[in-house]
Each structure stands twice: as C-alpha cells, then as structure tokens.
Amino acid sequence: MTASSLDCVQAEPVLTGVVPNPSALVTLAVAGSASHPQLTVTGEVDCSSAPEVRAVLDQLVDAAPTEIVVDLTGVTFLDSAGLSTLAAAHRRALAAGGRLRLLAATRAVIRPLQITGLWDLLDGQQVDTLAC
Description:
By secondary structure, this protein is α/β, with parallel strands linked by helices. It contains 5 helices and 6 strands. Strand 4, helix 3 (80-95) and strand 5 form a beta-alpha-beta unit. The termini are far apart.
C-alpha cells in the first residue's frame, strides 16, 4: 500500500454517545462503527424502560450493520418486556442480513435469557466484569 492509496481509503464512521432518555431506570450508550455498533445498557430493563431500548435498537438495525453487540453487563433487572425487545431486534437484524450478539455478567440477566432460549439464539457471552 502506498501513501497515495491511503488517501483513497475512507474510514468507517464511528458512533459514540449517550442516548438521552426520559427514564431514570436505564442508561443507553452507543459506540463502535456503523457496521459494528455496540449498545451498552445499564440499569433496569422492564416494561417502562424497554421501549427506550427498543427505539435505539430499531435505529441501529435500520442502519443495516453486520453485527450489533448489546452489552448487558450493567443491567440489574431484565423482565419479559426486555426479553421481547431483544427477540424483536434479533428478528429485524436477521431479516436485514445482520445479527445481534449479547454480553452479560449476572445471573439476573443470563438466567431469563437461558430459560427462554434467547441466550443461545443471540450468541450470549458471559463476561467477567471484574476482569475489565
């Protein structure tokens, strides 16, 4: 690769930022590139905060990325509304030719995902938050 050929290479846009949300229950932050964004979710994902998570996931899926990583390591509670949101985002991403992948650290998040089968379907990965 020559110096002149580097001028022709366009960098992929990088996404960063905290998504404003009206709920104090959950915080959402988007980072990464347009083709591989990461949504970091912190707090409680229940019937009152799941619509906020869904809205951000819908925006990310609409951009047709290859993979969306959803980091749930900071989630302290995940109910059926949150599970439904993740399943819907998975279906939409798959239909667009992409995929969703989950990161989680606690039993409160991992167990409901395992019971519903979403853990395996969404390629869930257990991470150790202490190692970070």
